[in-house]
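Format notes (please read before filing issues)

Several people have asked whether sequences and structure tokens are stored in separate files. They are not. Every record keeps both together, in the order shown below: the sequence lines, then the token lines. Line labels are part of the format and must not be stripped during preprocessing.
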Amino acid sequence: DFLGEVVKVEVPRGDDDIFFQGRSATAAAYIACGTVAYTQEPRFSPVNEESTVQVGAGSWLAEPALWCEWIHVGSARAVNSCELFTIDAELFLRVLEDHRIVGSIVTEYAHCFHQRVREARPPMCSY
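Then the structure lines:
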């Protein structure tokens, strides 16, 4: 089963760190339930001052890790007990090698995603 091979369930509790800004992203996470505080600081993100937003169920964290090399531009910490479905990027790619049809679809999506990342500019930038 493809999904069973790559999706793991993690259950961080309130104040547990999920990832840190400035570090390589090795996995993406889907928030199934709970709330995560996502904080960005000027030294890692195109923000003028530290900002924190609450991210809830139905949202992805660090999805770019699946499609390209990515450094976290913010930190994530559980606000309360959460349930996350995580996908390790390297394992995801290895498993796709055994699933050609899914792999070809995912490869096309990855190319499109990567292109959009390359073309993206920070909001309100001057270039």
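For reference, the curators noted about this record: The beta strands are 7-10, 17-19, 27-33, 35-40, 51-56, 60-61, 75-78, 83-88. The radius of gyration is 16 Å.
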